[in-house]
């Protein structure tokens, strides 16, 4: 439970366990931050997860530019819906787009009778892309074997060509179950 000396009025934090060694003003500052980013706000009906809004948002950002065996290049528009508090591309959206583009790249070489399972995704955030910028994502197969594929991605600003993010995805191949 919360410390008796701190009055927590936020309903989302009423069950929070707060360590004794954290000053009360720090707790209040964290709770104000969480309230500011909308942690307790209800999700509008149009963004219900059952409608697969996630895929719609990610698909809406992408425009394929080039597809060849072992390589996929896409244009990504940094729309306001996927920016963070600082008006730059949100790290979670970068990860989601990285997964989608790398899976598309792996699919250029992996047989259709195999499912792909994302086993690892690592991303280096070298710089940032601001709201309404366009970014070129270039995915290429590093290795593709019988049981796994490794994909490397480079994210470069369209306007300057500056490298802003790199990513590496490992996909495991599993045979599709025949029921």
From TrEMBL:
A Pfam family assignment: 4HBT
Alphabetical list of InterPro entries matching this protein: ACOT13 (IPR039298), HotDog_dom_sf (IPR029069), Thioestr_dom (IPR006683)
Span of domain Thioesterase: 88-156
Molecular function in Gene Ontology: fatty acyl-CoA hydrolase activity
Family: Belongs to the thioesterase PaaI family.
Protein name: Thioesterase domain-containing protein
Lineage: Eukaryota, Viridiplantae, Streptophyta, Embryophyta, Tracheophyta
